[in-house]
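Reviewer comment 2.1 asked that we show a complete input and output for one of the modelled complexes. We chose the adenosine-5'-triphosphate case, as it is the one discussed in the main text.
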Amino acid sequence: MTVLIETIGLTKHYQAGEGVVAALKDVSLSITPGNFVAAMGPSGSGKSTFLNLIGCLDSATHGSYRLMNEDVAALSHDRLADLRSRRLGFVFQSFNLLPRADALANVELPLIYRGMPRRQRRERAAEALAAVGLADRMHHRPTQLSGGQQQRVAIARAIVGSPDLILADEPTGALDTRTGLSIMALFQALNQGGVGILMVTHDPDVARYAERVLRFRDGRLIADETQIPANVAKALEALPEADDAA
Ligand SMILES: Nc1ncnc2c1ncn2[C@@H]1O[C@H](COP(=O)(O)OP(=O)(O)OP(=O)(O)O)[C@@H](O)[C@H]1O
Ligand SMILES: [Mg+2]
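Response of the prediction step:
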C-alpha cells in the first residue's frame, strides 16, 4: 500500500532561553492517501509542532520523516520546496491571505511559485474558487469577505495545486459553528475526492468529522483511533436557521 507520510521516532526540541523544550517526542505513524485525520490534545501538547514538521516548515531534531517515500531530511532545499508545493496544501486559523490582493490573486499565488503561465493560473484559480462556492466573489479583497468566505479562499488556495494532503491548523478556530461546519463539509467533499487531510483542532465537535483521531499529550502521541465520521449535512440541518450563509 502506498504511504503518504511516514514518521519514525519524530522528535522536536526547541531552545527556549536557558533550557530546552521537548515539543514533540518519539512520534511514529503513517498516513495513507485519502486519510482524513484530526490531531487533538491540550494547548502546548505539540499539535502545531507536529503539523509544521509534516508540512516541512520546520525540521526534526531526531527521527525520520518520509513524504511520498522521500526522506525529507536528505532533500536539497529546492527539491524540498518543490515537493512541498506540489504535494501539500496549507490552511491556517488566521487565513493568511494577502490583504491587498483579490480572492483570485490570492488563490493564484502557489501557482506563481510553480512558474505556471498566467492564463492557466487564472483558469485554475477560478476553478478552485468555484469549487469552494465563491465563483461570485473572485474580485473581492479579504476585507470585503466574511470570515467563512476568507477561510474558503484559503482552502481554494490550498487545493489549487491539486495537493495529495491538506494540512490545516485550527481551520475553524476563528469561525462560528455554522461556518465551521460548512468548512468541514468542504473537507469531507475534498476527502471523498481522494485528498488526504490532516487537521489540528482542540474541538471534539470538529474532530467528529474525521475518520481518524490522533491524541497528543506533552509532546507524545498517546492515542491513534479510527472512527466512523459524523455526517456534516445532518449536523447543518439540525442547526437553527441563520440569516446569512458563510
Ligand atoms: N518556536 C518555539 N520555541 C520554543 N518553544 C516552542 C516553540 N514552538 C512551540 N514551543 C513549545 O513547544 C510546545 C508545543 O507547542 P505547540 O505549538 O506544538 O502546541 P499546540 O499543541 O499546537 O498548542 P495550542 O493548542 O496552544 O496551539 C509548547 O510547550 C510550546 O511552548
Ligand atoms: Mg497550535
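The chain has one domain: 5-238. We note this here for comparison with the apo prediction described in Section 3.2.
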